[in-house]
Protein 1
Amino acid sequence: MGILALIPMIAPVVEKVLDYIPDPVEKAKAQAAAAQAQLDAMVQAAAAQTDINKVEAASNSVFVAGWRPFVGWCCGGAFAYQFVFQPFLGWIANLVVVNLGGTVPQLPTLDTSQLTTVLLGLLGLGAMRSYDKVQGTTKGH
């Protein structure tokens, strides 16, 4: 369990303790200190995750650094099928099969609602990668 998961459990306890401070000025100072500690913990956790991401991205192993490109290619391929190939394949199948006197097969469709969620997340990461390339901070993979 990470430190970020503990913050929602600790915050109510801190609020209860702060309720016992009678002086409004001291209470405000204590609340500000608690908020600052919470913010520091969140920043520290984000920095730790960033360090992990850097190590993963620097790896030459497909099993470490290759999962993002793999997921990107899967999402890109699925979108290409759903919005480019599937409509054209359906149109071509309709032309060919109807002219031969048969029935047109139903081509499979993909659930793009979940696919869109994953792809939008990847596009956000892709934008950061493009920014890194422009800044010259990538290794040129």
Protein 2
Amino acid sequence: MIRIAYFIDHLRTGGAQKHLVELVRGLDRRRFAASVWTEKSGGELTAEIEGLGIRVRSLDVQRSLTEGRSLVRLAQVAYALRREGVHIVHGYLYAGNLVGSVAGLLSKVPVRIVSKRSLDSYRSWPKLLACRLSNRLADRVTVNARAVGQFVEREEGCAPGKMVVIPNGVDCSRLQCSDTGAREALGLSPGELVVGTVGRLTWKKAPECLLAAAQIFLQEEPRVRLLVVGDGPLRAQVEKQAEELGIHGRCIFTGGVSDASPFIHACDVFVLSSVIEGMANALLEALASGKPAVVTDAGGNSEVVQHGKTGFVVPRNTPSQLAQATLHLLRHPELAVQMGELARKDMEARFSLPRMVQSVETLYETLLREKGIRL
């Protein structure tokens, strides 16, 4: 049995956290035994992981990883890894990567892996040095998109040969089940068209660009509504902008939701206006649901959407181009359906959840063999 300890900052709802839940759910239980460590305790996904029979423990860091109490906990974690005979530590996000790699080194865990999933720059030298340290201590650095790998090489000095690309995966079979009640629940009439987006309302998602584009396509097409699924620090600012643009009455703001798939099924076109992106799970889910997408060229978006085939890719911060591409799909419903069907097949071929889990399992077994360990 291969024993893996996963390390992550927290288990509140987020892209990396949902990815981890799906990964541990999909692992072959006959070959792999997982446990999870977090920097901070709590989070709504804790119960979901524990419901899979997987133990979740926390360092319960109050302020900083460098405070005395945290260093004591780090030593305790290293002791636990050694006592439990863990073969692999796999970190996610800043704290998870750092703690996992250092604790793995201290406990002489054979294989250490860190993960990079976004294009976030660390403004402080201590954090950047910590990232470089965790990369240095790792046997492999997984990235979820080629664009992320290029960023990590450029910003963190990680050797390309140390990185392996494992794209995110989604449960295509679950997402292909249409939800006919979603439109009714949103109060939509049969003749209305929906342009939707899903994501946290932060500067990275550039919601101001989406609303500027929406002003254009809502003026051009009176049957269209804009659906914004998600919450975040810019929520009030986004709604205020919608009022100032005179489109608030044609926008639907759902706030945060635990499952966005019913809302995705209500859409005719999915839009992502990001300025920074790793590989958006919401985009994968939309395409797997058979929705054509209009996205910016941020990060891994252009690796997911095949321009002109499964949707359109436009430059970042260009509301007019975002609007025109969206209008093209709204005005050509047969093309939108054709692109959506191709998107569904493309997700099954390249971004399915079983494919992602198998890639991770293969990486684990390959690295153990390189260390001369056969289990």
Protein 3
Amino acid sequence: MKRNASAQWKGDLKQGSGSFKTQSGAFLNMPFSFATRFENQNGTNPEELIAAALASCYSMALSAALSAVQKVEEISTDASLSLDQVEGQWTITGIHLETKAKVPGLSDDKFQEAAKKTKESCPVSRALKVPITLKAYLT
């Protein structure tokens, strides 16, 4: 299974702008810019999308893990991504997850164990550790 997205950028870093789209069409010509990424202007940015992907993936994976032992009513996860300057380079320095689950009858020990395992095993968590390959073309 493959999922695809594409992005286009026009202009220099500060005055330019870009847009991205996803294969599913859920995002189509979604704008982003220096201001939406680094100056908190309304709009999206790559880091926000990574945080959303991780929160979504984590909630689904935790539901799968917990459903094996107990009926899950609801899971809500917030992901807070930190983007900081490290040795002069913008770097994602961490992502903090905060999750709440409504699973009647589940002990806190079992919940904490599943939550911890899921943090390491959800596909997006693992993706953030994989090598990235590249082919680059000058047109």
